[in-house]
Design a protein that fits this description.
By secondary structure, this protein is mainly α. The protein has three helices and two strands, in the order H-E-E-H-H. A two-stranded antiparallel ribbon has the order 1-2. The two termini are 17 Å apart.
Length: 112
């Protein structure tokens, strides 16, 4: 079973690892903002999908950091040293396949 934590952190790890590589190759990369920091209203999904790093209790407006927020904190504190450093096309292909399989599993889970 795939967790939202693994989906979120595996995607961010692969994405940030690639950004690190292009920065090392000389791309003028000045920053990155995680999408999305907090659970929010999405036009297509409403309040149903919760893919932020911080859980929002919409009734009380209380914010609760998710495990992935603490993972992202570690990434920031180490300036990316804790990232996997995915480099090869094969590894990138495997990550895309993993993410696609995870999404399919989550879709199947929602079906009645």
């Amino acid at each position: 079973m795939f967790s939202a934590f693994l989906l979120r952190t595996d995607f961010l790890d692969a994405y940030l690892s690639r950004l690190s590589h292009v920065f090392e190759e000389g791309v003028d990369l000045r920053g990155y903002f995680a999408w999305t920091f907090m659970d929010n209203f999405e036009w297509e999904k409403g309040y149903h999908e919760r893919f932020g790093l911080v859980y929002v209790d919409f009734a009380t407006q209380k914010r609760i950091p998710k495990d992935s927020a603490y993972w992202y904190q570690q990434v920031m504190e180490t300036n990316g040293a804790c990232l996997s450093g995915i480099k090869t096309d094969r590894e990138n292909h495997e990550i895309r396949g993993f993410v696609r399989r995870c999404k399919m599993a989550l879709v199947k889970k929602k079906e009645p």
